[in-house]
Amino acid sequence: MSDKEQPRLASALAQKVVDTIEPTINRHVNIMNAHGVIIASSDSSRVGTLHEASVEVLRSNQIVRVSQANKIAGIQPGVNIPLMLNDQLCGVVGVTGAPHEVEPLADLIALSVQLLLSLEREYSRSARRATEARDLLSALLAGHSTPEVIARMLEAYGLGGELQIELWIAPDEQAPHLEKSDLEGVRTSWVPLIDAQWRIGKASEGALADVPDLNDRYLCQVPTADPGELLAQAEAMRTLAARTQLLAQRANLGIWNEDIAVAVARTPVSSLKYLAAPARALNQEQARTLLTFATAPSMSQAAETLHIHRNTLMQRLERIGHVSGVDIRLASQSLRLQHAIYARVALNELQIF
């Protein structure tokens, strides 16, 4: 429901308010909708009938006080107060009794109904957005949708421009980050799918600002405005979600290569041991050293990341080449050895990421 739409009173909610309040105040209570029809009452026989005084309230948007009873017309003394939501008139609350006595009670009931209606309305909007988020992310991850379908869904959800998908392997289903609410037209909330948590939103939000700590496995994709690329990214992330050991912790993203991780994640389990063979003789430290060297912009930067001297790094690299039998000075050979290390990670023989 948009903010411009006429708020509508739910009869069940209105009756719940009446049933809760009436025994306490010991007064007859009616709640009328925007047409003056009684939708909730302490006298069930009156539900569905027109309330004459409320018609005047709705016409004038003013409190109507009735001091004299009219048994022929079925009118009793009381007060009838407008029900407002977002500055829009949506109904009337009536309480029988001497006006000067029951007007404060009518005010209280009106405020209660307005508060409950506002909460229900916000909950409905939140539930709708949560459903839309799940549908959108499910469509991206299923791999069967076309870019045109995704584009229409994004438009319907109010998401435009450059977007990024986030994947998080939450260590605890009750983690505080999971309760981070969505922002309509900006980002979805976290959605549990395929044993992981997913979220999509505008790149300008700065996704890393409110996500898991450095020890959690997490990936945020490169922003894109192309629905086809979003589908490709989602497929790669879904593949990694199935092999969580290949998904890096935030603290290790600097030495992690997504392309290699995805390629190895797509490798059949029966082939992993053959892919891992070139790195079979490497220990944990040697494997990490090679990956750090391969992702660093320079030898000096790699040594600094490893907290060792540059000469020590050179000695380690020579030892890695000797142990593995691979000439890591050749890019193709180094890349082959990196694939082998990732294969051993996939086999749970190394814990690097």
Structure description:
The chain has 353 residues and is α+β, with helices and mostly antiparallel strands. 45% of the residues lie in helices and 14% in strands. The protein contains eleven helices and nine strands. The chain has a five-stranded antiparallel sheet with strand order 2-1-5-4-3, sandwiched between helices. A four-stranded antiparallel sheet has the order 7-8-6-9, covered by helices on one side. Strand 7 and strand 8 form a beta hairpin. Helix 3 (99-142) packs antiparallel against helix 4, helix 4 (147-157) crosses helix 5 (227-241) and helix 7 crosses helix 11.
What are its keywords?
Beta-Lactamase; 353 residues; 14% strand; Arc Repressor Mutant, subunit A; alpha+beta; 4-stranded antiparallel sheet
Mean pLDDT: 86
CATH topology (fold) name of the largest domain: Beta-Lactamase
Using only C-alpha atoms, the radius of gyration works out to 32 Å
Which ranges are low-confidence, i.e. pLDDT below 50, for 5 or more consecutive residues? none
Largest sheet: 5 strands, antiparallel
Spell out the CATH superfamily of the largest domain: GAF domain
Q: Please state the overall shape, judged from the principal axes of the Cα atoms.
A: rod-shaped
Task: Give the strand order of the largest sheet, numbering strands 1, 2, ... along the chain.
Answer: 2-1-5-4-3
**What is the tally of beta strands?**
9
- SS-derived structural category: alpha+beta
**Proportion of strand residues:** 5-15%
Order of helices and strands: HEEHEEEHHEEEEHHHHHHH
Residues in helices, as a percent range: 40-55%
